[in-house]
């Protein structure tokens, strides 16, 4: 039982890293398609080298910089907002576990302050990017 208690953080982090990095690689792996050349996969349109520069984000990917930045910020928001929510819940736990101790209350207040600053930066970047895209689109 001591071994489990001592290594629970390591096991949790290992499972988290495995589920974030390894499982998507396995689930998005492409199965080779059998063909008439002895079961070897045939090249698809993505792998044919025809001398042209292809969009690395796929055929339906963004074709200009503002669209790419918008998509990147939307992705960052989809990841960042749940992290901010979990950080605020953790700050609440810090406040409850402080039990009136001045040093722990200060630590909890600092954690909440930095969490809110991070949330403001995340949402501010999104707002500024939308403002710039709207302004540039209105000019053209």
Mean pLDDT: 78
Regarding quaternary structure, what we see is: single chain
Total beta-strand segments: 0
Helix and strand sequence: HHH
- Report helical residue fraction: over 70%
> What structural category arises from helix and sheet content?
mainly alpha
Largest sheet: none
The tally of helices reads: 3
List the uncertain runs: none
Distance linking N and C termini: 67 Å
Globally, the shape reads flat
Our Rg estimate from Cα atoms comes to: 24 Å
Give an overview of the whole structure.
This protein is mostly helical. The chain has a domain at 63-139. The protein contains three helices and no strands. The termini are far apart.
How are the SSEs ordered, and which strands pair?
Elements: H1 2-27, H2 65-98, H3 102-139
Helix pairs in contact: 2-3
Task: Based on the model shown, name its key terms.
140 residues, mainly alpha
Question: Would you summarize the structure shown here?
Answer:
The chain is mostly helical.
